[in-house]
Amino acid sequence: MITNIYFIRHAESPFIFGKEKERPLSEKGFKDAKTIADKLSHIHFDQFISSSYNRAIQTVEPLANGAPIKLYKELREKTLKGAYKSSEEEIENAIEMSLEDHEFKLEGGETTKEVLERSIPVIESILQDETLKTVAIGTHGNIMTIIMNYYRPEIGYEFWKSTTKPDVYQCTFEGSKLKEITRI
Description:
The chain is an alpha/beta fold and about 180 residues long. It has one domain: 3-Layer(aba) Sandwich (Rossmann fold). Helix content is about 40%, strand content about 20%. It has helices spanning about 25-40, 55-65, 90-100, 110-130, 140-150, 155-160; strands at about 1-10, 45-50, 70, 135-140, 165-175, 175-184. Strand 2 (about 45-50), helix 2 (about 55-65) and strand 3 form a beta-alpha-beta unit. Helix 1 (about 25-40) packs parallel to helix 2 and helix 4 packs across helix 5 (about 140-150). The two termini are about 20 Å apart. The relative contact order is 0.23.
């Protein structure tokens, strides 16, 4: 069975310390979300899914065009660290290390293994549902990379570093095997 999952990384959202779940899109982010909807409007999606974080939901809403969006807290962004400030360099180093060592984590954060344990069952349930041939998922850069890395271990830090806000990747699966990744 062939399933196409479109991972849609959220559009621009201003960073607000301690407000990961609530952060909205910026004005540019809303415009970019509409551009994504226009670019993908020719595709019939069987289901719209999103992380429970506001910025991911807001990025998928124009594409869903009023259709229901199924929210999964399991698809939320990886918690990198506790409620303390870190430099951008420290965060990027932690992301790189966590993609190489799935047990690595900063104080108060999640391991990649923990993220996989909560997210992969959702992805596998999509892949096993014969009614879902084409699915859009509103997501985040780190968890998207972690999920793709699960199916294709060569995907790692350099891939994550190359992604943009927003970004769209069509992942074509045959059963649970990731056959092709196409950046849209």
